Amino acid sequence: MKKKILITGGAGFIGSHVVRLFVTKYPDYNIVNLDALTYAGNLANLSDIEDKPNYSFVKGNIVDGDFIHNLFTEHKFDAVIHLAAESHVDRSISNPIEFVMTNVIGTVNLLNAAKQLWKTSNNQPHPDSHRDSNLFYHVSTDEVYGSLGNEGLFTEKTAYDPHSPYSASKASSDHFVRAYNDTYGLPAIISNCSNNYGSNHFPEKLIPLAIHNILHSKPVPVYGKGENIRDWLFVEDHARAIDTIFHKGKPGDTYNIGGHNEWKNIDLIMLLCKIMDKKLQREDGTSVKLITFVKDRAGHDLRYAIDSSKLQNELGWTPSLQFEEGLEKTVDWYLANQEWLKQVTSGDYLHYYEKQYISR
Ligand code: NAD
Ligand code: DAU
Q1: Which of 63, 136, 200, 324 gets the most CB atoms within 10 Å of its CB?
Q2: Is 143 a catalytic residue?
Q3: Which atom of ligand 1 is nearest to the CA of 42?
């Protein structure tokens, strides 16, 4: 019998890369992609694999507990890789409730359904020996650890200290996953990853927004003085890490994922401007003039930096790309996929951004 894996949020940025990797690398797995297709979900991200026999898509909302229960009863999933979430910090500041609903309630609905299904089929809570059959893999973020000063790295032992409504909702969902592991024996793994970049990234996040705006000669907004630091990882390296952890990780454990690749926002944007000038054959220095310093994000975390040595030493994962190479690849993808950009920026995108910039 084929192993049936539910991947939630598979039409989004990271989820689509994870779905593609699993569908193509594991023809013996049946992959069911569950996604509500919010503004951030886009089936065009998966057009190259949608006809594969081991792939299917279900449109649905993880906040709907009855729907989730019925879906688990129908499909009897062997494992879950949970990525569906509201993911943008700025949106969480203007509308926290959506983040509580999807990130917290949605996660608990999935945990309940998995607990019910797997407990029924084994008639008791799972000891570790069931590792091969069932696993709830929860994809989380380094933002749950809060903010670093100039020194130090987040490890798996760093205490949670979330600041934004987004990170508070992700921290809450992580706690629920651990609670289900500890209380009911649900076999669960959590990974906490740093900032991703790459293709199919919705142009509200720093890198794709800057690419979009430079392409259209629009202002590139940099919050505050641009001194905040993020640790960037190529999205396909994140997907490979999820594959590694899903297959080799220990239930009950947490794994940090990151590329040892810290960049001050302003330095990153300067580099991106240089790459864009070269690719668009504009005079060097053209795009830099678009940089516009705007009001800082409320509660803006200063620095994130991940220690991923546990994942590297215990499970043998390493990032594959140097940042400049990854960034060039990313820019190439956006320039070659301007229809995609046009499609995702139709709808209420402009309305949302105009409102944001006017209120800053
Ligand atoms: P995204 O916003 O691009 O995609 C989220 C997907 O979830 C979309 O396809 C959306 O339609 C779907 N979704 C949202 N609400 C839903 C609901 N109620 N029911 C069903 N589907 C729903 O997000 P992303 O950047 O790909 O992030 C994926 C996961 O990885 C999230 O859990 C996020 O917290 C985590 N993460 C992201 C990053 C990053 O840099 N982007 C880093 C670390 C961890
Ligand atoms: O660290 C992992 C997290 O990375 C994920 O959990 C989140 O889902 C993901 O959105 C991302 O969060 P950030 O807030 O770090 O990403 P964002 O791209 O929104 O911002 C990156 C940095 O750039 C941050 O310091 C804020 C700043 N910024 C962002 C935008 C959108 C700007 O200066 N200007 C902008 O227009």
Answers
A1: 136
A2: yes
A3: 9
